[in-house]
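Shipment paperwork, digital attachment
Item: protein structure file
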Amino acid sequence: MRRHPEILHQYSPDALQYSYTIDRPQQAPKIIHQIYLQPQIHTRNSTLHRYAEALSSCQNLHRNWTHLLWTDDTATSFMRRHYPTIAPHYEGYRQSIQRANVLRYALLDHFGGVYLDLDIACLAPLDELLHLPLLTPGAYPAGVNNAFILARPHHGFLAKVLENVAGKDMRWPMPYVENMLSTGCMFFTNRWMDYVRDLRGKIGSVAEEDKVYTLADQYGDMEPHFLRGKATTALFYHGGASSWHSWDAAVIVLIRKHYGYFLMLIGVGLLAFVALVWRLTTQSHRGEGWPPRAHERRSMEKRDDEERLLVSKDG
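Attachment content:
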């Protein structure tokens, strides 16, 4: 993305004192959406109380904003009313995180505003970002993150995201992979990349209201704004709850941390497999030569007996 500075919004807290004098029309409304959906099974994130401090921090810094906390009942009612074709997929997901992902896209498409994960605490007011049509942080190692999204209502990118929800509603044996590909950050990133490619392919200038931006610092570096694990940025503190991660996420993290050992194990396994195939092959070839197999010995003995019988008759 550094090769495309036009999609980077370079946020510098030091420059905010000068920016208030700039007349920029507001595109995103002053609404903060947050989502609390009960998981299907009891998990470590089953109580809202653990997020009280993070919730309060955003409310205190945005006193003149509207704060909406969406729960299972209000969320399901909203999806059925405003997105009836997506609602069956929303209600059919096996994981609450899949519903939370689709819900945030729909809420921002319908109302606009800011979406924040529950484990994000606000460290600075977001008013100075409301002139942007759509903004997300980058993600590691590539793409964009959906833990924080700012958007104007009915942005074209969100329409593209929602159009693809039904087609990506597939079941996978691994919960983490299923979420990432059906509604999560990988799904979100793929739609974002498609949208950016479409914008670049347009002839003529792109309207400001149709653009998308990614958070960067004053030097154009996105990493200081990554919401990866426990992280502190110029705007937020991210608690890194990852409440939706399942067993397969732990396996993936373990492999990523110790990929050298896993590569070595894979290499040893391949060598063992090749050695086994070679041994079976050589044994098979030997079996075709000497010593003869049992049925071949019996056939040879039968021929010898027949030859001896013929010799005795001739004699």
